[in-house]
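Show me any protein, fold above all:
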Amino acid sequence: MANNHTYRYYTQSLNTDGLWSELMSDAPVDWDSLTFSMTETDHMYIAKTAIDEPWGPGLMRPYGNISISPAAGVINYGQGLFEGMKAYRTAKNRVVLFRPEENARRMQRGADRLKMPPVPEPIFIDAVEQVVQANARWIPPMGRGALYVRPLLNGSGAVLGVAPAPEYTFMVFSTPVGPYFKGGMTCIDLLISDTYHRAAPGGSGGVKAIGNYAPGMMPSKSAKADGYSEVIYLDAEEHTYIEEVGAANFFCYRDGILYTPELTGTILPGITRDSIIELARQMGIEVVEGKVAAEFAMEADEAFCCGTAAVISPIGSITLGEITATYGNEPGELTQTLYDKLTNIQNEIDEDSFGWVHAVPGL
């Protein structure tokens, strides 16, 4: 229920005539207790098209369940993609998105790979903005979380036999989430898997396909049962080189050089990953994108993983078989610096010299 921590402001609501009107309302959230979990908000966006038809603007509707055929391509054959984004309240008293055009372009590349009609960037951005505007009362105050935005594209049409669906649905919903780290960044312990692999050359590892994630649930749960935070996956060919950490990109810092696995089609091209590379190079740090052997990374000075949810997760240790490499119980100096620089840009505390921040109109 609402309490002393509730954030009050003007937002928009859909009236019975299908028009947006302003009202003052409270979000029934205790921002200080908010975790990174699902909370239903007010409105969602849905657009549909046939496989051979262009996309048009979709409609806002109350958040709720959807109806779909049991024979839908997404249910039977996994023809689906998703994106993860955040809307922030900033020091300039604005609501902003972080590099949303990159999410739009990544979804377009994924749609091409899974034989779905790509959503045009203007429609993607407009849909995300509408969802943020319609759910503005759920955006936490600055520094106490963000509004997580989830665009989805899937083959919703019925199809029997392995073939592209005849109809597609583009949806966007949102949920308030708390800071990934309560009380600051916490170092995590990771386990290198020498049994399971996330992706193989020629597969769909380079796009954000829904089918990439379920196979990692069992190895992840097993690692967590053994006291680790997540699994590090090695390449499927030589079983030697680090690819990803669960659903996050990997970095290590050694002898003044920042290393990260190269994008070869088996690694997701993370937007946070790209931002960290640009920030580090602006700082004068050499960044090498290439093959990163597990043994090499385990001898590094610092290591971290990154993604939309946590921005940067410092790594405290990595275990491979009977060997454990320990980096420390506190984030490394470069790890902390990169985290601070990136979050200060997202929160408009520091100047955005890259043009990454995208203000949401009207908020």
